[in-house]
Amino acid sequence: MAIDGNHIWIGTTGGLVNLDTSTGNMIFYNKANSGLPNNNIYSIMIDSSGNKWIGTSYGLAIYDEVYWTVYDTSNSKLPSNIIRCLAFDKNGNKWIGTDGGLVKFDGSNWIVYNENNSGLPNNIVSVIKLDELGNKWIGTWGGLAVFDDSSWTVYDIYNSEIPSPRINDLEIDDQGNKWVATEEYEVAYKYYGGGFAKFDGNEWTVYNSDNSSLPSNNNYTIAIDNDGSKWIGTDYGLVNFDGLNWVVYDTWNSELPNDNVSDIIIDNYNNKWIGTLGGGLSKFDGVNWSQHNPSNTGLTQDFGCQIVIDKEKNIWVSSCWGLIKFDGINWHFHEIPTKQKCITAIAIDKKDVIWVGAADWVWNFDGQNWTFLKSFNLIPPDKINTIIIDKQDNKWFGFLLSGLSKFDGINWTTYNTDNSNLPCNTISSMISDVQGNIWIGTNSGLVKFDSSNWTIYNSENSGLPGNHVSCIAIDSIENIWIGTIYDGLAKFDGFNWTTFNSNNTDLPHSIINTINTVTVDEHNNIWIGTYDGLVKFDGLTWNIFNKYNSGLSGNTIQKIVIDNKGNKWIMDGGISVYREGGVILNIKNQSTSYLPSSFKLYQNYPNPFNAFTTINFQIPKSSKVTIKIYDILGREVRTLVDYFYSAGNHSTTWDGLDNLGHKVSSGVYFYCMESIDFKEVKKALLLK
């Protein structure tokens, strides 16, 4: 986080947020609507001109609130695209901490310091602070370094009392003491306990959970308030230390929304702004707490990779703490009434009751009430990987190491390698076909169970390309689509096998052909989630969507669910929704009085632009729409849109690339929208 007057700039895993603390209003920036190179924000600093310097997991962005400039390994001397921290010296030099070393940037020249050419103890630089003399104090994953622009001094586990080599944060107080936040760490088979340390230039004073009131030795962030008190973020709450007394704030004794505190900043009024992992942002004035959700949705909790849709078309998403429901407009959180949370699997039955599994327990939720079903003598005490519900409304639970269990509403039946022909007790996925057969993915192949007989398919007795089955889907003509770990995608029609991988198709070479999820839409298109993006396969053509060529927030696609309007709900580190022709949300509450009465093409914004620009348009009825970019000579540069859209307001983004994926030059361009009896042209200016 960074403070700019009444504004707080917040980095999240879903983009950048500008919070106006006087009004509570927020502006959201992400890769789809701005020049951000990636949605995962590690660091933010604001220079003397008000420019925002933003470290991401894919480069460094500078935003002057009009234009975006991006530096990465392809256009600069940055040694890594992971930018963890930033600091500015009195001469205006920018010091940049990366996963490839420390970088000094004076606006023109780049100087890189790493383990090989300097005294830097480790190339992963986590924090940089400057003292009154201009010395750089650099926290790394191998200790603490001090650099005075000519010589290096290193404090590590071998030559000092620093409690851990893993340095997460550092602050310097008015007396010049250095306060260091570290975490538990093991290196060379030796354990280092972590904790919180003070260094006065000669001696180290270490505070940990054994000798102080620190609730945890995993300390992630430090801030020093106007009174000199230290505020420490841990994975077990927020800690205030005034030099003598310790006060711990957590979710039990305060309004802190989550115990995992990732960042703290203190404003000019001595208010503490606390960023948490999964609970959003809190403000604490010493007495009162207020909550702010720096999300562009109502998602206020960490969410998992499970998603289902009920009969009312509500979207249900698993989280670490319960279930999140999206009704098309609002997000509602339903917390599980137990301390042991962390949902790992969900499914929804014919009555819209949601069945929830995790490690050692099963609950169900009817929209209002939670019911606990787990009993250790009924099902194995093991993590539940997957849940499905068959045509007879039986619930099937697949376990990490204990086989699978069936619950018919009264009785539980467990199948494993000891009492059945199940080839492996690790169950990764299950699906039920129209005949009521259960298809089971295991680490030893694919299994078909018809309630009496077990049929096993593996790489030795069938065309299955690999035995580690990760996911299964069934299309409308009963083909079985099987995703594997390391061996690509297979199709089985009951007789013949076809294998698809990066060697014989355009399927991405994703962590050696690993398929995370697969599903089928109403047109029998196959949608595939990989570590390198989302893939659509229509039987002939492979279309690849990733965070560089689409609005996806990340390339790791964990789950895809398709609703009755054709929207694809994609778990990609956030939740992305995609539909050819435009996303349709909140249909059940939508009134035609809110639909546009005419076609309209709006002026792009920002304009001029240097990375991305957004084009909004409206249509009064379902129509095919094309939007194309032309250069000043009238030559087509890019087709942005060529789809059927439903009536409503829509938008598209141009990233400055042509149809071949090449960057176009600066200059004037025209964008033209055409539809039924409508054509309009507007001008856009690209500056670099």
Can you tell me about this structure?
The chain has 688 residues and is mostly beta strands. Among the domains are: 134 residues, 7 Propeller (Methylamine Dehydrogenase, Chain H); 74 residues, Beta Barrel (Thrombin, subunit H); 95 residues, Immunoglobulin-like. The protein contains no helices and 64 strands. The two termini are 28 Å apart. About 1% of the residues have low confidence.
Low-confidence stretches: 587-593
CATH architecture of the domain at 157-290: 7 Propeller
The pLDDT mean sits at 88
Q: How many runs of DSSP E, i.e. beta strands? A: 64
User: If you consult CATH, what is the topology of the domain at 157-290?
Assistant: Methylamine Dehydrogenase, Chain H
- Straight-line N-to-C gap: 28 Å
The proportion of residues forming helix, as a percent range, comes to under 10%
Quick one: biggest sheet?
Answer: 4 strands, antiparallel
Basic shape: globular
**The CATH fourth-level homologous superfamily of the domain at 157-290:** YVTN repeat-like/Quinoprotein amine dehydrogenase
Q: Which class of the domain at 157-290 in CATH terms?
A: Mainly Beta
